[in-house]
Amino acid sequence: MDHAAEAHRTDLMTATQHVLNEQSKHPESRGDFSILLNHIVLGCKIVCSAVGKAVLAKLIGLAGVTNVQGEKQKKLDVLSNEVFVKALVSSGCTVGPSIFSLT
């Protein structure tokens, strides 16, 4: 693999584009999996943004809560959990937040 050429590729595809392209190959699909994956991608983008701003937003350090295993949770862990629970529930493709209870 030519790493220099790989660094200058312009034919990149987003996860959303890939999912939609693959879905179009299956006319019988209802789109639930595509919706779910797109909500996961959205959650990833939100968490990525929060990590990039963590110091400025004071998201570094302990959150002051303990999970069910007795571990002290960090602020970014708590935020990530909330983001993904909301993303998955808002997709309409999951049962509800009770299955995601981690605290």
From TrEMBL:
Could you say which protein family the record assigns here? Belongs to the FBPase class 1 family.
Q: What is the lineage of its organism?
A: Eukaryota, Viridiplantae, Streptophyta, Embryophyta, Tracheophyta
**GO biological-process terms attached to the record:** fructose 1,6-bisphosphate metabolic process; fructose 6-phosphate metabolic process; fructose metabolic process; gluconeogenesis; sucrose biosynthetic process
Which reaction does this enzyme catalyse, per its entry? Answer: beta-D-fructose 1,6-bisphosphate + H2O = beta-D-fructose 6-phosphate + phosphate
E.C. code: 3.1.3.11
- MF (Gene Ontology): fructose 1,6-bisphosphate 1-phosphatase activity
Q: What name does this protein carry?
A: fructose-bisphosphatase
Q: Name one GO cellular component term.
A: cytosol
Q: Which UniProt keywords apply?
A: Carbohydrate metabolism, Hydrolase
Q: Which SUPFAM superfamilies match?
A: Carbohydrate phosphatase (SSF56655)
* Pfam families associated with the record: FBPase
Q: Which InterPro entries match?
A: FBPase_class-1 (IPR000146), FBPase_N (IPR033391), FBPtase (IPR028343)
